[in-house]
Design brief:
By secondary structure, the protein is mainly alpha-helical. It has one domain: Hypothetical protein af1432. 60% of the residues lie in helices and 3% in strands. Strands 1-2 form a two-stranded antiparallel ribbon. It is globular and about 45 Å long. The protein binds fe (ii) ion (2 copies). The site of one fe (ii) ion has 5 residues, from helix 3.
Length: 154
């Protein structure tokens, strides 16, 4: 989606080291997000796009919180395409589910929590992005989702 240098990818990997190797994070590879794209691939797309926007446009966000929050923003850990009726308000409810899953496993700072809780705005109209990190992820998520849906159909 965006082109980053090996050093930039290395920096992202360093920020995510304590998160990406957990069993729960790896389980995102088994959930379908859009078309043929897994939730894991989707959150990594959002991580790279958020990193890219922050760096290239000098948006001044805290890079570590931005990367960690991006990685965990869809940490809801189920397949929302399962048609069993339990995921019917998925769009509205999954940020809270992602936040509680992530908070159980990791100590999140305020910015990381805001990113997860607010990434679906304006759908979740009261959860307005409250910091620049949250605004960047809210935007990156929409761009990534649109591209995944358009170009990566099954
Ligand atoms: Fe989401
Ligand atoms: Fe997302």
């Amino acid at each position: 989606m965006v082109t980053l240098t090996p050093a930039e990818l290395e920096e992202i990997h360093a920020h995510l080291h304590n998160y990406m190797h957990t069993e729960e994070a790896q389980s995102m590879k088994g959930f379908c997000q859009h078309g043929a794209v897994s939730t894991y691939d989707h959150v990594m797309n959002v991580v790279r796009l958020s990193y890219y926007l922050n760096k290239r446009f000098r948006l001044g966000a805290d890079m570590r919180s931005l990367v960690v929050g991006s990685f965990l923003h869809d940490f809801y850990l189920y397949d929302w395409h399962d048609n069993d009726g339990t995921h019917r308000l998925h769009g509205f409810t999954h940020p809270q589910r992602a936040l509680s899953n992530a908070s159980r496993l990791f100590a999140l700072n305020e910015k990381e929590q805001a990113i997860i809780r607010q990434h679906m705005w304006p759908l979740t109209f009261r959860a307005i992005p409250s910091c620049r990190e949250s605004m960047i992820v809210c935007l990156s998520d929409k761009i990534s989702s649109a591209i995944e849906t358009l170009f990566h159909r099954k």
